[in-house]
Write a structure and sequence with these properties.
The structure is a homodimer. Chain A is an alpha+beta fold. Chain A has helices at about 25-35, 40-45, 75-90, 110-130, 185-195, 210-220, 235-245, 260-270, 290-300; strands at about 50-65, 70, 75, 95-105, 130-140, 150-160, 175, 225, 250, 285, 310-315, 320-325, 330. The first copy, chain A, folds into 2 domains: about 15-160, PurM-like, N-terminal domain (60s Ribosomal Protein L30, Chain: A, 2-Layer Sandwich), CATH 3.30.1330.10; about 165-330, Phosphoribosyl-aminoimidazole Synthetase, Chain A, domain 2 (Alpha-Beta Complex). In chain A, the strands form 3 sheets. Chain A has a 7-stranded mixed beta sheet. In chain A, α3 (about 75-90) runs parallel beside α4 (about 110-130). β1 (about 50-65) of chain A pairs antiparallel with β1 (about 50-65) of chain B. Chains A, B: Pfam families: AIRS (PF00586), AIRS_C (PF02769).
C-alpha cells in the first residue's frame, strides 16, 4: 500500500533533455519537491558530495536498476532501488545508513511517473532507516534509454558482532532461507506476459536489514554468510558459494518454501523456481548447532515467517549443488547460463 | 596517450543480455580479465559489498555518465567516469579512496570497446590513487540504452585542514580558475559535428585531487569553496553559488583563460564559452589575501599552469553574476536554461 504525496505544481509534464543540463531546468526539477521530498540535513548542503561521519568497519555497495516495466504489482523501480542496496549492505552484516541516488531518465518520461517513483523512494528510505545524501540526474534522448534507470550506492556500518565471510563457511553448516522463492520474478513475468492468476502475484521486495540485525545480535559470528538470491535466483548464488568455497551444497527440495500460485505459474511457464529472481528473501549459512533456533527466531519476524532449513554444506561433491528431490531422486543444480528473464531488477 | 592491456581471450565478441543475468555468462564476463584488470584486495572478496575502514569526516559522491560518443579525442567514458567522481570528492576537500563501478551495457556492444573502456578505468584509477572495490553490471536490450552508461560513486577522507562550504564564502573573496574554459565541451562537439580544426581539440579530463591536496595543505581554511564547472559550465556553477550565498559575483572577461582554437570554435558554433562544459578545471573561492599566492602555487602544478584570478565575490547585486567585458561593458551572466549540448558527461 503506497502512501501518496501530492505532486508539486510544475510548468512541465514531461522530462526533456534540458532537465539534465545542470542549468535552470535541472534546478527546477530538483527544486520542484525532490529536495523537499527527500529532505535531510546532509542532502540539504547541496555540495558535489555529502559529508558524513563514519567510524570503523564500513560496508560499501552499488547496484543499478533497469527493471522493466518500472511499475509492477506491489512496487516500482524506486522502492526496488532502495531495498536492493539496503539488502546488499545487510548481507554484509552492516546497518545501512547513507544512500546515493542517481537517475538516468529518458526524454519524454512523464513527471507524474517520475514523481511516483520518487515518493516510493522516500517511503522505502524511511522504512529502511536510510537517507539519500547525494545524487545525480542525467537525461538521454528518447530511444537511448528506457524511462528510468536508477543507481543506488550505499554505505553501512558493519555490526560489531557480525563476521560475514565466505571464509567462515564450513562443511556441516546449515543453509537457511528466509521465505518463499521465485515470487518477485513471477510477479514481473506475469505483468510482462499479461498472465492472469486467481489473485495477483505481487513482488516481495522489502528491506531485510531489520531482520538481519535481529539475527546477528542474537547469533553473532555463528552467522557465517548471508546472500540475497536476486538475479539468477537461488541456483546462481549457491553455485557461486560452492565454487568459491570449494565445498558442496545439498539442497532439500521438500523444504524449499514456495507460494502455491507461484509454483503453478512456474509450471505453466516452464521455469525452474530455483532460477527465478528473488527480492525479499535471503539465504543464511549458519553453524548447524544454532540452525533450529535461528529459524525459530526468523519465523517470529515479519520478513521470515516462511523460513526453512533447506540444505547443508558438505565436503562431498565439492563445487557442486545437488538437489534431493521430493520424490527421492537427486540432480545437479547447475549455474544458470544466460538470462531466463532479462531486466528483472 | 593510452597504455594498452591485451584483451583476454573470450569466446564472445559482443555483449548479450545473458551477460547481465547473474549466471554463467556474467561470471564469464567478469572473470575474463575484469577482476584481474581492476584487482585489489577489497574487490577480490567478491561479496555483495566491500568492507572498508574509515575514520572521521568522509565525503560521499555519485555521478552517472552518459556521454556520447563514448570515445572522444584524448579519452573515453571510462576515464571520464573515474575522474568525474574523483573530482567531485576533491571538490569536497577530500582525498578520494574508494570507488564503486556500475555498468548499464546495451546488448550488442562489442567486447573490444568494453575492454578499451575498462582499461581506461584501470589507468585512471591508478593515476588518481583510487581503487574500485565493488561493482555491478546490467545489460539492456538493443535500443533501450546507448552502448555504455557508467555510474561511479566514491568515498574519500576529508582532509583535516579542509573546510569547504558555501557558508565560508564572503564578500571580497577572490575567484580563481585553474585552467582554460570550454575545452571538454568543444572537443565533444567537434567529434559529434565532424568539425575540423587545425589541430585536434582534446578533452581536458583529468583527476584534480592531487592539485587540490597541494593547495589545501598550503592554504587550509583560506580555501572557502571548490567547484568543478562541468555541465552548464562556469555560468551555471557561479549562478548557483550566487543564488545560494545571496552574494554577487563580478567576473573579469579579460582574465578568463581560453585556448585560441576553442575560442574560435565557440565563435563558429555560436556558443558562449562560459556555458560550455568543462572536465579538467576547477574554480576556487579563496580569501583575497592569499589569492595571488594561491594562483602562483597553482601555476607550478601541471593541472594549473593557466590559472587566473577571474573574479571576486561582492555584496553588490546579490544573487547575480556580472561580467565585465574586455571592451569595458557589463552584462548579466544568467543561469543557462536548458541544454546547450546534451550528454556531455
Amino acid at each position: 500500500m503506497q502512501l501518496q504525496c501530492p505532486m508539486p505544481k510544475v510548468d512541465f509534464e514531461m522530462i526533456t533533455l534540458g532537465h539534465g543540463s545542470g542549468g535552470l531546468l535541472t534546478n527546477k526539477l530538483l527544486a520542484s519537491g525532490v529536495f523537499d521530498l527527500l529532505k535531510n540535513d546532509l542532502l540539504d548542503e547541496r555540495h558535489d558530495g555529502a559529508f558524513i561521519n563514519l567510524q570503523g568497519k564500513t560496508a560499501f555497495s552499488t547496484d543499478s536498476f533497469v527493471i522493466s516495466p518500472i511499475f509492477f504489482p506491489n512496487s516500482n523501480i524506486g522502492e526496488l532501488a532502495v531495498n536492493g542496496t539496503v539488502n546488499d549492505l545487510a548481507m554484509c552484516g552492516a546497518i545501512p545508513r547513507y544512500l546515493s541516488l542517481s537517475f538516468i531518465l529518458e526524454e519524454g518520461l512523464s513527471m507524474q511517473e517520475f514523481w511516483e517513483v520518487l515518493v516510493s523512494i522516500k517511503f522505502a528510505c524511511e522504512k529502511a532507516g536510510v537517507c539519500v545524501v547525494t545524487g545525480d540526474t542525467k537525461v538521454v534522448e528518447k530511444g537511448k534509454g528506457d524511462k528510468i534507470f536508477i543507481n543506488t550506492s550505499g554505505i553501512g556500518t558493519v555490526h560489531p558482532q557480525a563476521n560475514i565471510s565466505l571464509k567462515n563457511v564450513n562443511a556441516e553448516d546449515s543453509l537457511v532461507i528466509s521465505g518463499n522463492v521465485a515470487t518477485h520474478g513471477i510477479a514481473i513475468m506475469s505483468v510482462r506476459e499479461g498472465l492472469q492468476f486467481d489473485t495477483d502475484i505481487q513482488s516481495d521486495t522489502q528491506a531485510l536489514n531489520s531482520a538481519v540485525l535481529t539475527l546477528i545480535e542474537k547469533f553473532g559470528n555463528d552467522v557465517h554468510l548471508l546472500k540475497d538470491p536476486t538475479r539468477g535466483g537461488v541456483a546462481a548464488v549457491l553455485n557461486e558459494i560452492a565454487r568459491d568455497t570449494h565445498l558442496g551444497i545439498d539442497l532439500f527440495q521438500k523444504n524449499i518454501p514456495i507460494d502455491e500460485q507461484v509454483e503453478g505459474a512456474c509450471e505453466i511457464l516452464g521455469l525452474d523456481p530455483l532460477y527465478v529472481a528473488n527480492e525479499g528473501i535471503f539465504l543464511s549459512i549458519v553453524n548447524s548447532e544454532i540452525a533450529e533456533d535461528y529459524v525459530q527466531l526468523l519465523r517470529t519476524l515479519p520478513e521470515g515467517k516462511n523460513a526453512q532449513i533447506i540444505g547443508k554444506i558438505v565436503d562431498a561433491h565439492p563445487k557442486q549443488v545437488i538437489l534431493q528431490s521430493s520424490i527421492g531422486g537427486k540432480r545437479v543444480v547447475n549455474m544458470p547460463v544466460g538470462e531466463q528473464l532479462p531486466r528483472i531488477c
